[in-house]
């Protein structure tokens, strides 16, 4: 039997240093701070969502109120375009101005629906002006009324 001896030097053994309690405390404090930040950010997101929802609800209420009141007024004025174009024109101008004011306060799809309603009223207003000169295109009047109805329906779908 032969005995072999190793010529390699033994590896130095490093003592394991225990983690100091101060480092543990800092690590825990950092973990708590990170968790708190994550919770705070998620709370901010929930608050932003709530505010956005409230703003959207207010916009829909404003748009519904504007279109609801104007729709009947516009339909009545459109029915009188041939008989009394001056009165129809005054009512349509008031409706157009009310929709323009509402449109300025809105954004997004709600604003788009109010803009479409205002465009329909503008077309009716043009027909009322032409009726004052003796020419009414009844098909244009009916199409503008349909477009107004579509805008009101579109708003109901959005809101």
Attribute tags:
159 residues; mainly alpha; Four Helix Bundle (Hemerythrin (Met), subunit A); 79% helix; 0% strand; rod-shaped; coiled coil
Describe what is shown at a glance.
The protein has about 160 residues and is mainly α. It has a single domain, classed as Four Helix Bundle (Hemerythrin (Met), subunit A) (Up-down Bundle). It has helices at about 20-80, 85-105, 110-130, 140-159.
Please describe what this structure looks like.
The chain has 159 residues and is mostly helical. The protein has one domain (34-158): Four Helix Bundle (Hemerythrin (Met), subunit A) (Up-down Bundle). The chain has helices at 21-79, 85-104, 108-132, 138-158. α1 (21-79) runs antiparallel to α4 and α2 (85-104) packs antiparallel against α3. The N and C termini lie far apart (95 Å). Residues 23-55 have low confidence and may be disordered.
Give the topology.
Layout: H1 21-79, H2 85-104, H3 108-132, H4 138-158
Helix pairs in contact: 1-2, 1-3, 1-4, 2-3, 3-4
**How many DSSP E strands?**
0
Topology as H/E string? HHHH
Please write the CATH class name: Mainly Alpha
Q: Identify the overall geometry.
A: rod-shaped
Percent helix: over 70%
Summarize model confidence as the mean pLDDT.
73
- Give me the CATH fold name: Four Helix Bundle (Hemerythrin (Met), subunit A)
In CATH, the architecture is Up-down Bundle
Question: In DSSP terms, counting alpha (H) and pi (I) runs of 4 or more, how many helices?
Answer: 4
The domain tally reads 1
């Amino acid at each position: 039997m032969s005995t072999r001896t190793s010529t390699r030097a033994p590896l130095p053994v490093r003592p394991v240093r225990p983690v100091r309690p101060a480092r543990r405390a800092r690590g825990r404090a950092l973990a708590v701070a990170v968790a708190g930040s994550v919770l705070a950010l998620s709370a901010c997101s929930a608050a932003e969502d709530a505010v956005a929802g409230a703003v959207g609800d207010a916009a829909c209420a404003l748009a519904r109120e504007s279109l609801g009141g104007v729709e009947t007024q516009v339909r009545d004025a459109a029915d009188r375009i041939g008989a009394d174009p001056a009165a129809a024109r005054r009512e349509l101008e008031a409706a157009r101005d009310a929709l323009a004011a509402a449109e300025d306060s809105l954004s997004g799809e709600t604003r788009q629906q109010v803009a479409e309603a205002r465009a329909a009223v503008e077309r009716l207003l043009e027909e009322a002006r032409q009726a004052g000169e003796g020419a009414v295109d009844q098909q244009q009047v009916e199409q503008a009324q349909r477009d107004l109805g579509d805008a009101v329906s579109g708003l109901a779908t959005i809101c």
